[in-house]
Amino acid sequence: MFTKIITSALGVFFTASAMIVASPTAEAQEYTIKIAFLGSPQDEDYDGSMVLKDYIESRSNGRVGVEIYPAGQFCNNEKECLDNLQAGTLEVYITTIGGFGNVFGPGQVLDLPYMFANDRIAECVFDGPFVDQLRQGVIEADVGMRLMVISNTGGWRNFGTTNKQIRTPADIEGVKIRTIPAEIQQELVSQLGGNPTAIAWPEVYTSLSTGVVDGTKNGITDIMNMKFPEAGLKYLTLDGHAYMGALWWYSDAAWQGLPDDLRRIVFDGMNHLKTVTRAFPMRRQIEAYDAFRESGGQIYVPTAEEKAAFQEASSGMRQWYIDQYGSEWLEKLDAAVSACTGSVDAEFMAANS
After folding, report:
1. What is the pTM of this model?
2. What is the C-alpha to C-alpha distance for residues 45 and 36, in angstroms, rounded to an integer?
3. CA-CA distances (angstroms) from residue 28 to 23, 46, 64, 260, 261?
4. pLDDT at site 77
5. How many Å apart are CA 77 and CA 165, to the nearest integer?
6. Contact (Cβ atoms closer than 8 angstroms) between residue 192 and residue 312
7. What three-state secondary structure class fits 50?
8. How much of the chain, in percent, has pLDDT values that exceed 90?
9. Continuous H helices in the chain
10. 176 and 183 in contact (C-beta within 8 Å)?
11. What is the C-alpha separation between 351 and 353, in angstroms, rounded?
12. In angstroms, rounded to a whole number, what is the distance separating the alpha carbons of residues 331 and 342?
């Protein structure tokens, strides 16, 4: 009798288990979101994309599938990627601030040198009402893209060179510096007395090794990921002239096809992506700086007086921007930086009282 009871119980258990396995655990996939970027799977962009993928797929209960295409697997260059994004054949793409400026000219205000004192000020601005204003400005410009979040893609831009250490603005005189094809970055090098040279990212290694350029403007993790010391990059000056913001976009055409509940899931997931892509460069730069030194590289941190000299030498950039795009967005950014500086200082005072 006891054996029959056990057998009967096991039969019920396995039958119930089979029903659970056979029953669908999620709704059928209704949407596919494709994420493309030009960086490698070793970049924080990939880590953030994985977090976004997991969040969307789990929170949507399988209604949305997310595909990730790193290293130019979906589109080979920024123009091609942006064309796909604006057409709605690509849902998610990331641009640098410079790349953003090529789509929405006034957005180059974010690339003005020495605007942010540190990460806390920059991230406060990029989490505040200024970004809402920027989102609205992009929508009104009707460029077919919606700004989701602003994260980071490599820390801070610094000057790296092959032939000499840069300590003052005078040291940049005549130096051929690689820039992205963004007018504002080229203008900065020119105002500092250097020779700006726009070169595509995949070609920077060869350009450094062959002397086409004498230096570049990049963060340390990008420098080490691309093995630039092997191409002759020996000197790094931590002037921190630009926060390497990363703007994550959603195709407006594709966004219009999402129901509100999925839009909220995507947006919330983007904010988790933002957390990861801000934190990882800060953690990874520790080993990157060590590796740069071990390769024979020399790192110089400008004094407060030298930093002020760089700021003074590039002060004409503000007027250059106003001449190009007017003062509206510069005034908005100045106000946001001022408010965040006050907020960060007040927080310290409260903790230090």
Report:
1. 0.89
2. 10
3. 12, 26, 9, 18, 16
4. 87
5. 32
6. no
7. helix
8. 86
9. 2-22, 44-59, 78-87, 97-103, 119-126, 129-141, 183-191, 204-210, 220-225, 252-256, 260-294, 304-313, 316-325, 328-352
10. no
11. 6
12. 17
